[in-house]
Design brief:
Elements lengths: L3 E9 L5 E10 L4 E5 L6 H9 L6 E6 L2 E2 L10 E4 L11 H11 L4 H14 L15 H13 L5 E5 L7 H20 L5 E6 L2 H7 L2 E6 L2 E6 L1 H6 L4 H6 L6 E10 L2 E6 L2 E4 L13 E7 L4 E4 L7 E10 L3 E8 L2 E8 L12 E6 L5 E4 L13
Parallel strand pairs: 3-8, 3-9, 6-7, 7-8
Antiparallel strand pairs: 1-2, 1-4, 4-5, 9-10, 11-12, 11-14, 12-13, 14-20, 15-19, 16-17, 16-19, 17-18
Length: 375
């Protein structure tokens, strides 16, 4: 395996549209890196440039010690797993798995040994004599994964490989792929992976690190916990987390040296745990509050915003409480056992931000201005 580096990589199309804006990214050997972002953020374009399926119009792609800009896909030491599996319909699973090795004219006994090894790892031995049309979606995806694995490439590239599967199967395949990655690392065969998805659940549960993209720019690269707890900007804060972070316009002021926040016509003192982190003067900010970090209390309670319930979504062990705060509707996640069953639309409640978990973002640049210095 090898590390992967993108250095000032750009993509500009013939009509002048610039899809990728000079991005820099380093994927360590054996790392599972996820590229995530909304549709149109250029994550798949970036993956295709790594693969050699899309030309690079600026910068360098380096795999190991070699710059691969001008190499065809087959010479880059990569293997790619696609959304639609791309299995050969007329070939049985055994030949689908071994096709790449046969093209390289490897010895027959080595091909058979590799096929046996890979089919055992992926638990598809019983499928070897079936045609692709006889496979379920999950089985076909495992065969596609095996066809990549058998090549022992420098880098594995995954382009939204689970998006065609139902929710239950996606969950089980997430576990299979991450377990396989860990097993290969433990066996001394670390797999360097770049995995593209629009699904933040896949990103958060699978990636060693995650690269969040927007409009052809990298917004932040970090491990899942850091992205959730310390988003670099409002976009990352709003994109990562379910339900998504509440982002509301607010005004930061100071009363006798004590910072205060005003939003929706209400003012509260900046909660403990947040005040000492603020690195911006008074003025307009964006207040970021994750639904899980709002405490339900009585209307008019100290340190809480008073809001009017507009909807209650029962999720089993918790309830998503939607409430109007000024012109905005915010969401709080409340444990079911803590919710008064008599609450209904139109009732007024208090929602108290938990200070250490709240963020302030610059209203113009979106930069997080409430991260502790040096972090």
């Amino acid at each position: 395996m090898a590390e992967l580096q993108l250095k000032s990589v750009e993509k500009t199309y013939g009509n002048g549209f610039k899809a990728v804006h000079g991005i820099d990214l380093e994927v360590e050997e054996g790392e599972f890196m996820v590229l995530v972002g909304p549709s149109g953020c250029a994550k798949s374009t970036t993956l295709r440039m790594i693969a050699g399926l899309e030309t690079i119009t600026g910068g360098e792609v380096q795999i190991g010690s070699q710059v691969v800009n001008d190499l065809v896909p087959g010479k880059r030491g990569i293997a790619m797993v696609f959304q639609n599996y791309a299995l050969y319909p007329h070939m049985k699973v055994r030949r689908n798995l071994s096709f790449g090795l046969r093209l390289k004219r490897q010895p027959k006994d080595q091909i058979e040994s590799a096929t046996t090894d890979v089919s055992g790892i992926l638990e598809i031995e019983a499928l070897l004599d079936r045609l692709p049309k006889q496979l379920s979606g999950g089985q076909a995806q495992r065969v596609a994964l095996g066809r990549a694995l058998i090549k022992q490439p420098e880098v594995f590239l995954f382009d939204e490989p689970l998006s065609n599967l139902d929710a239950k199967l996606r969950a089980s395949m997430r576990v299979r792929i991450t377990d396989l990655h860990k097993r290969l690392r433990e066996e001394g065969r670390p797999a360097t992976v770049v995995y593209v998805t629009h699904d933040q659940v896949e990103a958060m549960t699978m990636g060693d690190r995650i690269c969040v993209m927007k409009d052809g720019h990298i917004m932040q690269v970090a491990d899942p916990a850091t992205l959730y707890e310390r988003p670099a900007n409002a976009f990352v804060g709003g994109f990562i987390g379910m339900p998504e972070m509440n982002l509301v316009p607010a005004v930061l002021t100071r009363e006798d040296g004590v910072p205060q926040l005003t939003t929706g016509g209400q003012t509260i003192a900046v909660p403990d745990g947040l005040a000492h982190r603020i690195s911006t003067p008074e003025g307009a900010v964006t207040l970021g509050m994750r639904p899980q970090h709002l405490e339900l209390t009585e209307a008019e309670a100290p340190g809480a915003f008073t809001a009017e319930i507009v909807n209650l979504e029962f999720m089993g062990h918790e309830v998503n409480l939607h409430a109007r705060l000024g012109d905005a509707v915010i969401v709080a996640v409340v444990p079911s056992e803590e919710l008064d069953r008599n609450l209904a639309r139109g009732d007024r409640v208090g929602l108290r931000p938990l200070g250490p978990r709240i963020h302030l973002f610059d209203s113009e640049t979106g930069r997080n201005v409430s991260l502790a210095q040096g972090n």
